[in-house]
Design goal:
The structure is a single chain. The protein is mainly alpha-helical and about 525 residues long. Helices cover about 75% and strands about 0% of the residues. The chain is elongated and about 95 Å long. The chain starts with 12 loop residues before the first helix and ends with a helix. This is AraC family transcriptional regulator.
Length: about 525
Amino acid sequence: MIQIPDSLNGKDFDYLFDRIEDDRISDGSRSVYLISFLIKARTEENWEELSNAYKNYVHYAPDQLKLVYADSMVWAAKKSNIDEVIGSAYLSKGISYYRQKRLKEAMDIYLVADHYVKKTNDPYLIHKTKYQIGQIKFYLGYYKEATALFKECIGYFKHTNVRAYLNSLHALGSCYKMVGNHGLCTTINRTGIEEGIRTGNIDMEPNFIFCEGVNQCMIHNYTLGVEKIQSSLPAIRANKDFSNEMVGYFYLGKAYWGLNDKEKAVAYFKKVDAMYLKRDYMRPDLRVAYEFLITYYKDKKMIKTQLYYVEKLLEIDKKLHLTYTYLQGKIRKEYDTQQLVEEQKDLRSSLDVRKHNDQIFLSIISIMCIVIVYGIIKYFKNKKEARKKYEELVQKIEVADKAKVYKGDESDFSISKDAEEAVLHSLKKFEKSKKYLEKDLNLTKLAVYCNTNTKYLSLIIFRHKNKKFNGYINCLKVDNIAQRIRNEKVLQNYTHDALAEEAGFSSTRRFVKAFVSCTEITPKYFIEELKKDDSAL
């Protein structure tokens, strides 16, 4: 029976997850952390973390095993009976199908995920779902609708998740490219590269260069297009992005055809065909490769080869029609209609009760106008609310600078009043001495420090701090770093990576997530507002 190594006994899930995501470790070491995470979750019957354990395997397992682990991930998520966990699991399973370009299965799973995600107030999951639905709309050629979804995602992810923000930018640039807004596409690609450098996340740079290469080919700047596609293709292949690899071969073929080097062009169009045979996947706009091949062999009077590609194109068109019809039906009847029904409910509930029965059916024009106005109001409301949250955080820091006063809850509790007061006193000393910055701090260590047991300590923290242990520690770290950022101007020029280390977080992702969770604004926004206020003095 496999057991957790002695060196990892007592380590919490955050510790194990950070090691799993550490790019510096070997695959062998990662497998030890993966199985330890899984065993710990299973032993503790922690269904949420067990779902996360299988999600880790979905990410790192070979392609042929990803969907097996995805099924286990959904099973564990359902056992948790938590909508956020179930919705997230289904979404991850859908993404696994999508990456294999099994679009019908992906769409079915996305709709289930959307059902659960809508029950939550989790903006990250809501926008992640919108991003994936946007990808399906892009495939179907609904570029304007996809554009609207990707813009929403950019607005949210820009302040919360760097990689998701860059992914959304890339998707938006691809939409502009396909509708002929080539100048906007170039601007987005340039912005994506600059933002990647600014945030220290350059993994997406080849994708933006690739997108710009395709964009240049589409406006007949073939030499520049070929150069950019060729330079970025190795990274595309390394990421196992076979869909974009096919796109690259197709546009290299179109470029060489435009440069009148038809032999080279045909070689690349044949690469598109080879990938279709291997993957059984074709994007609607890539089918034109077969029209070029048919034309080429017709001119060469090679009737047998010409017939081969004619029959291949007929086969592809039939498959595309079936896939397109299925996805179109799903996205129109089940997703878009549901969105309209929800908008209709919201609009009806806002009407005067006396007029409710007289105004059941609203015209499409009225709905569009209301949605546009709502978007404008929401934009200014969000800016106002973000500023309010910033002012609340600054006020909190000012109060802390003057005096750190702790007020306990006077209501009844399940342990004696004296014991409770003793623990609260210890917590006050713990906070004042900033012991929450110690590495490998866990609930057990804090319970020893407070001279109590973990159960009582958890209850007291939840009762008096209104948070679970991890949330309590994270918010102490966030309050501390926020206070330092305000008082130590040099920190305002630190990167998120550096701030995460200063704050005592094991990763930048956890730091940003904790900062947003505790303050409802991003560290970037907080620093920008501080600088504005300082310059106004």
